[in-house]
């Protein structure tokens, strides 16, 4: 083994030590951004287009929704959007067909787009209290005094 063989051997050993970089997956991040005019829309679009890894930025002024697609992290996109001094939050709405109880007090939102409700954890469910129970008994068919109340 000569000098060339030794260099090749060392080169192979050093290249095997390097770990391959973990490739980021393409993601879609939806944000709710308070925008009033087309100037606001342009400003938000320009700032988010400058984030490293962004492939496309779609802005819906009517719904106040910004969709960012690319090799990005949601936290970085959120931070970049907040740098525009606009009120920004992750998109809180989901289609109401995906929620078990779409009209629970935490989920229902008048400002939500059509056919959407707020995304709430599964722990938020309808709970029946004793007060609710008494109202259902008052107007029950089994209650003989129900007619007198009406």
Overview of this structure, please?
Helices cover 33% and strands 19% of the residues. The longest helix is centred in the first third of the chain and has 15 residues, at 3-17. The strands form 2 sheets. Strands 2-3-1-4 form a 4-stranded antiparallel sheet, with helices on one face. Strand 2 (54-60) and strand 3 (65-70) form a beta hairpin. It has a domain at 27-90: Alpha-Beta Plaits, CATH 3.30.70. The protein is built from 5 helices and 6 strands; from the N terminus they run H-E-H-E-E-H-E-E-E-H-H. The model has no long low-confidence stretch (mean pLDDT 79). It has 150 residues and is an alpha+beta fold. The protein is elongated.
Helix and strand arrangement:
Layout: H1 3-17, E1 27-33, H2 38-49, E2 54-60, E3 65-70, H3 74-82, E4 88-90, E5 93-95, E6 116-118, H4 130-138, H5 146-149
Antiparallel strand pairs: 1-3, 1-4, 2-3, 5-6
GO molecular function: metal ion binding
Keywords: Metal-binding
Protein name: HMA domain-containing protein
Shape: elongated
Low-confidence stretches: none
For the sheet with most strands, the description reads: 4 strands, antiparallel
Strand order, sheet with most strands: 2-3-1-4
- Computed CA radius of gyration, to the nearest angstrom: 28 Å
The mean pLDDT is 79
Report the CATH C-level class of the domain at 27-90: Alpha Beta
- How many strand elements? 6
CATH architecture of the domain at 27-90: 2-Layer Sandwich
Give the gist of this structure:
By secondary structure, this protein is an alpha+beta fold. The chain contains 5 helices and 6 strands; from the N terminus they run H-E-H-E-E-H-E-E-E-H-H.
């Amino acid at each position: 083994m000569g000098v060339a063989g030794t260099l090749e051997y060392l080169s192979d050993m050093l290249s095997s030590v390097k770990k391959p970089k973990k490739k980021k997956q393409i993601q879609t991040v939806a944000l709710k951004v308070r925008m009033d005019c087309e100037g606001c829309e342009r400003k938000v679009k320009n700032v988010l287009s400058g984030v490293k890894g962004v492939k496309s930025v779609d802005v819906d002024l009517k719904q106040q929704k910004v969709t960012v697609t690319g090799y990005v992290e949601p936290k970085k996109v959120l931070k970049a959007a907040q740098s525009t001094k606009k009120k920004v939050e992750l998109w809180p709405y989901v289609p109401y067909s995906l929620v078990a109880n779409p009209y629970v007090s935490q989920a229902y939102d008048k400002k939500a787009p059509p056919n959407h409700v707020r995304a709430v954890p599964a722990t938020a469910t309808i709970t029946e209290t004793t007060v609710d129970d008494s109202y259902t008994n008052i107007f029950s068919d089994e209650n003989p005094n129900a007619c007198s109340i009406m």
